[in-house]
Design brief:
The protein has 237 residues and is of the alpha+beta class. It has an 8-stranded antiparallel beta barrel with strand order 1-5-4-3-2-6-7-9, surrounded by 4 helices. β7 and β8 form a beta hairpin. The relative contact order is 0.23. The model has no long low-confidence stretch (mean pLDDT 92).
């Protein structure tokens, strides 16, 4: 596995508790050089893994080379999660997030829009079949038996550095999840915090260090995929 030079990036994550969110926005608007780059929206994902949760295990153990596989779609802030999942016009993008040590990239392996509104089981089966078809042509995935595991859902705010739009910052709020096996209401994962993600090309590391030297929060390791799986007792994270 070799990461793409065009899309390689470094990601740094921070956990900000609700009581400190005003401090986060104070830094963002008064002390940094970021500006909003995109309207907030909901980010939805269905993650896939093997029956033995090999992808989750490799990510938890910190193996040098690891991947995550998901179907992702976006929705408006006021759109109901299940309504968006089952609609007849939503674009589902199949992605492989690849990581080697601390660097990663994201590969779009295909997109599909379903022609009719379906029941929950039918829609999940449709997504599964679409991924199976796409995976046959992907050397990285063709050997795996991939199954849907967990849905994640959260509100994302987008910012970029005014002088360099390749340095981006996102804020994820109201992070929720549900088991992919049964249609249920979303359960809150992040009960008292938001996640801030800083993303940049590793060549910009010096600039980022200068930019973030006064950022009032500490870096953490955080995975919505693993945290959600832990909630339904599929992994210990």
């Amino acid at each position: 596995m070799k990461l793409s030079e065009d899309s390689i990036r470094k990601e740094i994550k921070y956990k900000v508790f609700f009581m400190d969110v005003p401090k986060l926005y104070d830094w963002l608007y008064r002390h940094s050089f970021f500006q909003e780059s995109y309207c907030p929206r909901m980010v939805n994902s269905l993650y896939f893994d093997t029956p033995n949760y090999d992808f989750a295990s490799s990510n938890m153990s910190g193996e040098s080379k690891r991947i995550k596989v998901r179907a992702r779609w976006y929705s408006e802030l006021d759109e109901n999660f299940l309504d968006g999942l089952l609609s007849d016009s939503k674009v589902f993008t199949f992605e492989v997030k690849r990581k080697i040590n601390s660097l990663s990239d994201k590969v779009n392996i295909g997109e599909v829009t379903y022609e009719k509104k379906e029941s929950y089981i039918s829609r999940v089966n449709s997504i599964q079949k679409s991924l199976e078809t796409i995976a046959r042509s992907q050397p990285t995935l063709s050997a795996f038996n991939l199954l849907g595991t967990i849905f994640t859902n959260y509100e994302r705010e987008y910012y970029e550095l005014k002088s360099d739009n390749n340095i981006r910052l996102t804020i994820d709020k109201n992070i929720s999840y549900c088991n992919s096996k049964t249609p249920s209401g979303l359960l809150m994962l992040a009960k008292d915090y938001v996640i801030v993600e800083l993303k940049f090309n590793p060549k910009s590391r010096k600039k980022v260090n200068t930019l973030m030297k006064d950022f009032p929060f500490r870096q953490v390791r955080s995975s919505k995929f693993l945290s959600s799986l832990a909630q339904i007792q599929r992994v210990s994270y």
